[in-house]
Each structure stands twice: as C-alpha cells, then as structure tokens.
Design goal:
single chain; 185 residues; mainly alpha; globular
C-alpha cells in the first residue's frame, strides 16, 4: 500500500470521527480542553487499534468475525443515534446533558462504534502481502486523532446555542446512517 493510498484510507476511516466531533462541537462548544483531548485520543486509539485487531484475526481466522463486525457497528451506532433522536425531542430540563463526552462510558462507546469499520480494514490488510501493519496503524490513529480534534475546534466557533436540538437530531441521523453504511458495506 502506497503512502497516498494509506493517507486516503486514513482520512476515509476518520470521517466517522469527524462527524461525531462536529456534533459534539455544536452541542458542547464550551467543553474543557481536557475532554476534547480525551475523546480525540480515544478516537485515534480505537481507529488505529481496530485495524491491528482485524489484521491479527485475519491472519489467524481469515473470515468468520468479519461477517459480524458490521452488525455490531450498526447496533451500537443505531442505539446511540436513536437515543440522541429521542432525547432531542425531550424538554431541555429533562435532557441537559445531550451527548455527554465527559463520561468515559460514552467516549468509549463512540470510539468503538466509529472504529468497527477499521476492524474490517484490518482483515483486508491480512490479505495484502508485505503489509506494514504498524505504520498503517500509526497513520490511521494519528489521522483520526487530528481530524477529531480539528473538527471540534473549528465547529464550536460556528455554533449557536439555539440550534443544539437540531444538531442532536442531525447527529442521531448521522450515526444511524453511518451504521447503515457499515452494515450494507
């Protein structure tokens, strides 16, 4: 795999992270920097780690888990997206937190959900001869981290507190559509 192919692949894989970071930026524009670093690092870690796991499974099993990975991703994304949609229609006092990335549970679930497609990429790496897996993992993880951090940073400057309900609706729909995209391949 050439450097250009790897960079394009890394950017493509990071688009899920980009979408979620934009939603978080719209919903929580005043989020402390440590939380932005934390979810960006989590996205980078899981986006980079999943191809390694996929490659390891691909090297040893070459197939069975690859068939269920899209269903797992769809289930997680549909659950989180559906929850966001439901919560967007509740009264503000009933739903003050929205998509709360200050909680580790939410960050880890989002990071795993957005990186399941990277697991499938790892399976494909197992089929490519002379794969530089550690280089690939590092580039994918770094791209996801940077794109997540920059997306939040730029989007939060554009936000208006009155559009948070619409942002949550859009975010929920985006998560569900990402899950569908993963499911249908």
């Amino acid at each position: 795999m050439s450097w250009i192919e790897l960079i394009l692949l890394s950017i493509s894989l990071a688009m899920d992270c980009f979408a979620i970071s934009c939603v978080v930026g719209m919903l929580q524009p005043s989020l402390e920097k440590r939380y932005v670093w934390r979810f960006s690092l989590a996205f980078g870690f899981f986006q980079g780690g999943m191809p390694l796991i996929g490659w390891l499974f691909g090297e040893s099993l070459l197939g069975p888990l690859g068939r269920i990975a899209p269903f797992i991703a769809f289930g997680i994304l549909a659950f989180i997206g559906g929850k966001m949609l439901i919560e967007s229609f509740r009264k503000e006092e009933e739903n003050p937190q929205h998509l709360d990335v200050t909680k580790w549970k939410n960050v880890i679930l989002l990071a795993i959900a957005t990186s399941i497609d990277a697991l499938a990429v790892g399976f494909s790496f197992a089929m490519i001869q002379e794969t530089h897996i550690f280089r690939n993992v590092l580039v994918i993880g770094l791209a996801s981290f940077l794109i997540s951090y920059l997306a939040y940073t730029f989007v939060k400057k554009l936000t208006n507190p009155k559009i948070s309900q619409y942002a949550e609706i859009i975010g929920g729909i985006v998560l569900i559509l990402i899950g569908v995209k993963i499911l249908i391949g």
